[in-house]
Fold:
Amino acid sequence: MLASETSRGLSRIVAGHPPGSVVTATRYDVDVVVTEHGAAWLRDRTDEERARALVSAAHPRHRAALEKERFEAG
Structure:
């Protein structure tokens, strides 16, 4: 379980990480992401399904921006 936002109001669910970022859990290590806005079931899902599920668990004020980033990424 994680808070959907940081203490500064930024989304903890992001479209990607900048080059050189340190990621401690790979995509294959996480089955479910739970926030106060819902649960994103990730196991055995395609990249598109995973993205949609994560956006649905994000804070509502960040969902439109995450969808836009996802759409622009291809």
User: Anything to note?
Assistant: The first strand starts at residue 32 and ends at 35. The mean pLDDT is 93.
